[in-house]
Specification:
Blueprint (H helix, E strand, L loop, with lengths): L1 H15 L1 H4 L8 H6 L4 H12 L10 H14 L5 H12 L4 H15 L1 H14 L5 H10 L8 E2 L7 E2 L2 E7 L5 E6 L4 E2 L2 E4 L2 E2 L2 E8 L1 E5 L5 E3 L4 E4 L5 E5 L5 E7 L2 E2 L2 E4 L5 H13 L1
Antiparallel strand pairs: 1-3, 2-5, 3-4, 4-13, 6-15, 7-14, 8-11, 8-13, 9-10, 9-12
Helix pairs in contact: 5-6, 5-7, 6-8, 7-8
Length: 279
């Protein structure tokens, strides 16, 4: 039942907020810019057909097409500026440092060791500024259709660790996608209302926890629905070993407010792992 509710919400969001989940269309102008006068047909095939049509087909994501293209180029021994261009394109399409390293290691046994060395030298330059945290963040983004959003600076004082916020809708029932880095959690807090109010959470990706005061923590997985009545003291956040994202819906009511309380201590947080082991 919960998963049906989750699916219905996703469909509704897609209908009302398509710009949030739509894949940005890939465009290319290099052919027309560099060869438009000398070889106009080649420029057309390169920009309009290869990139305009093939790269935008729905069967594979740009991320996966980039990995396939890089593998094909290295397999053919192309480790020049053309490969560098596609490595940069792959990074822009969300391929992480870990993924390109693993892919090149794998194809080295099929494409040849010297060509893999050459590809690694270029890849190391392209991903020189990438960090492990950015790597994990990019990989997590691909697990869900909603955006991670921007650093949650406005509410950072009420969180332990780093979180991100993407407002999905501000009409009728406002809701946002909230993403937590591993071990990140918000403070104890209470949703106040004289009538109605409260909050509903729906797990989107990763693994997290929800806990009401005086009760054991409850695990949140993709599709898990948590109803939080007004007046209940609680907290929620990511598991220690996983990024986590949930949709947070504000339930309509009268005289709504949010009362932020003390941080969740390390001892309180670690008790969620004890509950997991016991369970």
């Amino acid at each position: 039942m919960k998963r049906r509710i989750f699916k219905a919400l996703i469909i509704a969001c897609a209908a009302n907020s398509s710009i949030v989940m739509a894949q940005e269309r890939i465009t290319q102008t290099a052919g027309h810019t560099q060869l438009g006068e000398f070889a106009p047909k080649f420029a057309e095939l390169n920009d309009d057909v290869l990139f305009g049509e093939v790269w935008n087909r729905p069967g594979l994501s740009p991320h996966d097409r980039s990995l396939a293209t890089v593998a094909a180029l290295v397999g053919k021994g192309v480790i020049d500026s053309s490969l560098e261009h596609h490595l940069r394109f792959a990074k822009a399409n969300g391929v992480t440092r870990t993924e390109i390293s693993e892919m090149l290691t794998h194809i080295a046994f099929y494409a040849g060791w010297p060509d893999a060395w050459g590809a690694f030298r270029l890849a190391e330059e392209v991903w020189a500024d990438a960090t492990a945290d950015e790597d994990a963040k990019a990989a997590f983004q691909r697990e869900m259709i909603f955006p991670i959003g921007e650093p949650n600076t406005a509410y950072a004082q009420y969180f332990t660790g780093n979180s991100y916020l993407a407002r999905i809708s501000t009409d009728r029932i406002p809701f946002a996608n909230v993403t937590f880095e591993p071990r990140c959690r918000n403070n104890w807090h209470i949703h106040r209302a004289s009538e109605g109010g409260g909050q509903m959470l729906i797990g989107v990706a990763g693994r997290g926890w929800y806990q009401e005061e005086g009760k054991p923590a409850v695990e949140i997985l993709p599709g898990t629905v948590v109803h939080i009545p007004a007046g209940v003291k609680h907290w929620h956040g990511a598991a220690a070993d996983s990024w986590f994202a949930h949709l947070a819906f504000e339930i309509p009511g009268e005289n709504l407010s949010n009362e932020w309380l003390e941080p969740v201590t390390d001892a309180e947080y670690e008790s969620t792992r004890t509950d997991e082991i016991i369970g």
